[in-house]
């Protein structure tokens, strides 16, 4: 369980951190973009795992937020493909379909946290900041 604390703005001297969000639901992508940009992150969104994998050679993110249940590839499989392609940024899995084994499967795949929909607000922001805590600006 992630505890939600007071809002802490990113110091102005710190570089903006980038989050890639992958979800097949356009409404979820829009609300997560708004949430994360409001909290100071740069955000790129993708409507599918395939779209993310085909996005080309742009700079990678500081963190991925990936939906578990998508039509083309699930979030755990997508994480495995990212890892095999040498993408080491932390992954946070979001899901509206939790099952008793999802946390164990996610941990085995190297996923940092699992956050349940619709509780994505400050829980998600806190998880992202924790995942990229190796930088003092996070």
Distance between the termini: 20 Å
What is the CA-atom radius of gyration, in angstroms? 14 Å
Report mean pLDDT, rounded to a whole number. Answer: 85
Q: What portion of residues is helical?
A: 25-40%
Which consecutive residue ranges, at least 5 long each, have pLDDT under 50?
1-11
Strand content: 15-25%
Q: List the total number of helices.
A: 5
Number of strands: 5
Which structural class best describes the helix and strand composition?
alpha/beta
Strand order of the largest sheet: 2-1-3-4-5
- Outline type: globular
Characterize the largest beta sheet: strand count, sense, and whether it forms a barrel: 5 strands, parallel
Order of helices and strands: EHEHEHEHEH
Can you characterise this structure?
The chain is α/β, with parallel strands linked by helices and about 140 residues long. Helices cover about 35% and strands about 15% of the residues. It is built from 5 helices and 5 strands; from the N terminus they run βαβαβαβαβα. The protein has helices spanning about 25-40, 50-55, 75-85, 100-110, 120-130; strands at about 20, 40-45, 65, 90-95, 115. The protein has a 5-stranded parallel β-sheet, sandwiched between helices. β3 (about 65), α3 (about 75-85) and β4 (about 90-95) form a beta-alpha-beta unit. It is globular and about 35 Å long. The two termini are about 20 Å apart.
């Amino acid at each position: 369980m992630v505890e939600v604390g007071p809002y802490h703005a990113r110091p102005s001297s710190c570089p903006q951190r980038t989050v890639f969000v992958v979800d097949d639901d356009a409404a979820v992508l829009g609300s997560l973009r708004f949430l994360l940009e409001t909290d100071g992150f740069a955000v790129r969104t993708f409507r599918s795992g395939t779209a993310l994998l085909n996005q080309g050679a742009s700079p990678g993110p500081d963190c991925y937020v990936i939906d578990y249940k998508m039509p083309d590839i699930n979030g755990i499989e997508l994480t495995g493909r990212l890892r095999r392609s040498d993408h080491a940024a932390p992954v946070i899995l979001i899901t509206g379909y939790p099952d008793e084994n999802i946390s164990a499967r996610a941990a085995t795949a190297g996923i940092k946290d699992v956050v349940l929909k619709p509780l994505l607000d400050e829980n998600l922001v806190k998880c992202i900041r924790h995942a990229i805590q190796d930088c003092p600006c996070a």
